[in-house]
């Protein structure tokens, strides 16, 4: 039932990570540095993959799109957050809030399935190497990436429409640093049952479905690797999966903690800390994970450095 005697909300106030004024400049510097590392790392990864012909393979094609999605959803949140650290007015318009809300859900779900597609790519490469060229053709790769984007943005649109159907008539303080599901629903004056149910269904089903496909791929991958007789062959096969497994662990671990909890004041406070990891830490670490643990990427970086600095 809609609450009475309130004025319709036209803007929200983002309370951020903390209300302690002395910490705002420090947090500004910390998150600015994290964002710069994230932006430089992911843009560099995209440019490196595009510029080095040896990286023009399905695995790196998917990695370039993972970097793009990571960069986009970090960019969707960070600039507004940085402005709020140094501003007394921490407001965001109703329209701006829902745009941020839509993009965030769309990009995160796209990320789920980009990681899933990368697991499938490793499955085909290791378990069906003779069919790799046909099963992972350029047309197939483009289709898999396109489906991930379309499905992610369709889910984001549905969730945004359901959120727009709620009434917001005060108060307007969002206890978070971006426009997230649980803190927004706490502010709603109307019944949130449909939206809350949809949040659990979408978050739970997409997390479970994508992770199940990833784990199933790796069950087949590990089974195939264990059949390789030479230790060197097994080590090389495992090395192609290590970076992806690390990225999956960081990303999915924090998302399970974030989404599969009922909206409440306590869950929102916990969610802010968890959100820092998958919005800022995961996109920052992914380029490092894939560059430090991947021989092809390290070799490409070495050649770029030699060419730029030494002209060799």
Write a structural description.
There is one protein chain. This protein is mainly α and 312 residues long. It is built from 10 helices and 3 strands; from the N terminus they run βααβαααβααααα. It has helices spanning 24-51, 58-86, 94-127, 132-135, 138-164, 181-187, 193-226, 231-259, 265-292, 295-310, and strands at residues 11-14, 91-93, 173-174. It has a 3-stranded mixed beta sheet. Helix 3 packs antiparallel against helix 5 and helix 3 (94-127) runs parallel beside helix 7 (193-226).
Could you say which overall geometry the principal axes of the C-alpha atoms support? globular
- Structure summary, number of beta strands: 3
End-to-end gap:
71 Å
Please state how the strands of the largest beta sheet are arranged side by side. Answer: 2-1-3
Which class do the helix and strand fractions yield? mainly alpha
Brief write-up:
The protein has 312 residues and is mainly α.
Can you lay out the helices and strands and say which pair or pack?
Blueprint: E1 11-14, H1 24-51, H2 58-86, E2 91-93, H3 94-127, H4 132-135, H5 138-164, E3 173-174, H6 181-187, H7 193-226, H8 231-259, H9 265-292, H10 295-310
Parallel strand pairs: 1-3
Antiparallel strand pairs: 1-2
């Amino acid at each position: 039932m809609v609450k009475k005697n309130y004025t319709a909300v036209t803007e929200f106030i983002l309370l951020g990570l903390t209300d302690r004024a002395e910490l705002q400049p420090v947090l500004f510097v910390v998150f600015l540095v994290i964002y710069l590392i994230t932006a430089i790392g992911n843009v560099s990864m995209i440019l490196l993959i595009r510029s080095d012909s040896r990286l023009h393979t399905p695995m790196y094609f998917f990695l370039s799109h993972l970097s793009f999605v990571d960069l986009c959803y970090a960019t969707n949140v960070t600039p507004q957050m940085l402005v709020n650290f140094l501003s007394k007015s921490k407001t965001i318009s109703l329209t701006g809030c829902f745009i941020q809300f839509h993009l965030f859900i769309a990009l995160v779900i796209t990320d789920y399935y980009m990681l899933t597609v990368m697991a499938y790519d490793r499955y085909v490469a290791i378990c069906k190497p003779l069919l790799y060229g046909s099963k992972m053709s350029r047309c197939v790769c483009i289709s898999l990436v396109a489906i991930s984007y379309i499905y992610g943005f369709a889910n984001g649109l549905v969730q945004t429409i359901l959120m727009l159907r709620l009434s917001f008539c005060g108060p307007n303080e969002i206890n978070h640093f971006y426009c997230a599901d649980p803190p927004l629903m706490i502010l709603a004056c109307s019944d949130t049952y449909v939206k809350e149910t949809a949040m659990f269904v979408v978050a739970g089903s997409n997390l479970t479905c994508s992770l199940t496909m990833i784990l199933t791929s790796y069950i087949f991958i590990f089974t195939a690797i264990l059949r390789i007789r030479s230790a060197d062959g097994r080590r090389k096969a495992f090395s192609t999966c290590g970076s992806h497994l690390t990225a999956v662990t960081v990303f999915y671990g924090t998302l399970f903690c974030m989404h599969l909890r009922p909206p409440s004041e306590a869950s929102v406070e916990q969610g802010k800390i968890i959100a820092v990891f998958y919005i800022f830490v995961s996109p920052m670490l992914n380029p490092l994970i894939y560059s430090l643990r991947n021989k092809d990427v390290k070799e490409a970086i070495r050649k770029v450095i030699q060419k730029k600095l030494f002209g060799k």
